[in-house]
Amino acid sequence: MKKLFFLIFVLFFQNLLYPQSGWMEQSRIPDYSLRAIDFANNNTGCAVGTGGIIIRTTNSGANWNYQIINAPQGLTGIKFINENTGFAVGAYSMFRSGNGGLNWNIHLTYPDIVVPTDIIHNIHDSSLYFVDRNSIWKSTSHGGTWYIVYNGGGNIQALKKVFFTSATTGFCVGGKGVTNGVVLKTTNGGVNWSEKSPADLSRFLYSSYFINNYTGYVVGLSNNFKGMLYKTTDGAESWTKLVDTLTGGAVDCSFTNESTGYLIASSNKIYKTTDAGLNFNIQIIPFSSEGFSQIKFIDEHTGYVVGTPGLIMKTTSGGTTFINYFGEIPLKFGLDQNFPNPFNPSTSINFQVPKKSLVVLKVFDLTGREIQTLVNESMKMGTYSVNFNAYNLSSGVYFYRLSTDEFVLSRKMTLIK
After folding, report:
1. What is the pLDDT of residues 38-83, one digit of tens each?
2. Whole-angstrom Cα distance, residue 353 to residue 377?
3. Secondary structure of the chain in HEC code, one letter for each residue
4. Looking at residue 226, what is its pLDDT?
5. To bridge 205 with a disulfide, which of 99, 132, 173, 337 should be the other Cys (CB 3.0-4.6 Å)?
6. How much is the average pLDDT of 253-261?
7. May I ask the CATH class of domain 2-315?
8. What's the predicted TM-score (pTM) here?
9. Beta-sheet strand order (sheet of 382-389)
């Protein structure tokens, strides 16, 4: 009861502190780490983690309630196959809910050597898959029975994530041997798997995200212990290394369309790309964390990150840069000159909203190419300030534009490095 009261207090306090944050903290439960999150619908979702904790919301994260189930080794994955039925996996046991995550019961147990790290629902044919350290398991009976479709033996030691783009095509990533990563691919619904790893891949892969059968990304830890990102456009036949210098290992990624994606690192950083991975901007997180585990978007703008301690963060604006809300009520829409100007590498942009409106604030270069979306959300009346960090841009002139249904205004700013 004391922990529940603490949770409610923290959520209330955070909403006062960050009413218009790009990423808002929704949960922080001491002594627990959250490993995975999934939603049964737009309102109801659950996150799972160490000690058998399951934390649940029925109002899109406005409130979270938790329970501890009999999984002392912890839970590592969760997946809902519809609004009522969900599965959670952990060491030695799988749990099932038939009422949207309210209650959980042991569904099956498996040998001690099986330690699942992920569970997914292939929406293309309603099959289920989970991965453990060496094997990939499949169910075609809504989780009733399971059978192994891949066993890597001693050569594969740390399979992490599985991802399907169709009923037949899927990918699995993880570790191979002591230090190497691996990408596996199937084109026949998991009957056969072949290795499709990048030629220069070293260390481990932690996650993947595929836009379609051909275009996808894998993330992990490079040989110099930096976060790395690879991309394929031919179904994993070849790979291009896009990033290998991120602080901390890259632990997960998620894309909302072919251009816009997010990557989280173990160094408590969230990166966003709007050009299919060619460039990444760090998103400002206005609170501390001990580590991120998973990022999941349920639509183009709404996403969640889970981590430690008992951490859940949410964005409804695609993770815009942190926005300060001053509460002053303006008489009309306005967009101020950024300050400082010229700047290096960050500057503040103030704007005014006289009534509740959908507000979009974007940055462009001299050619008109969009550089970054700073704001894209419904905002109540007030005066706001948003920070723009151009750490990865070259010196030059840039434009920023504020748009609403009733107002459009652009201004010029100069970056000098």
Report:
1. 999 989 999 999 999 999 999 988 889 989 999 888 999 999 999 9
2. 12
3. CHHHHHHHHHHHHHHHHCCCCCCEEEECCCCCCEEEEEECCCCCEEEEEHHHEEEEECCCCCCCEEEECCCCCCEEEEEECCCCCEEEEECCEEEEECCCCCCCEEEEECCCCCCCCEEEEECCCCEEEEECCCEEEEECCCCCCCEEEEECHHHEEEEEEEEECCCCCEEEEEEECCCEEEEEEECCCCCCCEECCCCCCCCCEEEEEECCCCCEEEEEECCCCEEEEEEECCCCCCCEEEEEEEEECEEEEEECCCCCEEEEECCCEEEEECCCCCCCEEECCCCCCCEEEEEEECCCCCEEEEEECCEEEEECCCCCCCEEECCCCCCCCEECCCECCCECCEEEEEEEECCCEEEEEEEECCCCCEEEEEEEEEECCEEEEEEEECCCCCCEEEEEEEECCCCEEEEEEEECC
4. 82
5. 173
6. 90
7. mainly beta
8. 0.73
9. 323-325, 382-389, 346-353, 334-335
Rounded to a whole number of angstroms, the CA Rg of the chain reads 22
Paired tokens of 307 = 């981590």
User: Quick check: 367 pLDDT over 80?
Assistant: yes
The CATH code of domain 323-415 reads 2.60.40.1930
- pLDDT of 138 > 80? The answer is yes
**What's the pLDDT tens digit per position in 373-402?**
888 777 888 888 887 878 768 999 999 999
Domain ranges for the chain: 2-315, 323-415
Which residues face 96 on adjacent strands? 87, 105
Q: How far is CA 96 from CA 141, 164, 191, 249, in A?
A: 14, 22, 26, 32
Q: How many CB atoms lie within 10 A of CB 367?
A: 5
179-213: b (≥16 Cβ within 10 Å) or e: ebbbbbbbeebbeebeebbbeebebbbbbbbbbeb
